[in-house]
Specification:
Helix content is 31%, strand content 20%. It has 93 residues and is an alpha+beta fold.
Length: 93
């Protein structure tokens, strides 16, 4: 049964890869923001339209550095430093 299911999944993948439809190019709307403060490894505060907003990064979860109950977790400071470097040297469009 596993072989039949595996063959079926592989067949679906091959059919999807060999589709004759032209690939669609994703579109994105970007808005420049001003970095106010990087909070930790997965959170930052930015200024958008004159208002400071807290931004949590999608699908990123790093150890906490300022959690009221958990305190500072191992490697949290390193994650925060990495995020700081990425945000302060980010390319502006």
């Amino acid at each position: 049964m596993k072989r039949i299911l595996s063959a079926f999944v592989v067949s679906l993948l091959l059919i999807g890869c060999n589709s004759q439809a032209a690939p669609t190019k994703p579109t994105a709307n970007f808005t420049n923001v001003q970095l106010v403060k990087d909070v930790d490894g997965d959170t930052a505060k930015v200024k958008l339209n004159g208002k400071t907003e807290t931004v949590r990064f999608l699908l990123i979860d790093t150890p906490e550095t300022h959690h009221p109950k958990l305190g500072k977790q191992p490697l949290g400071e390193e994650a925060a430093q990495f995020t700081n470097q990425m945000l302060t040297h980010a390319q502006q469009g």
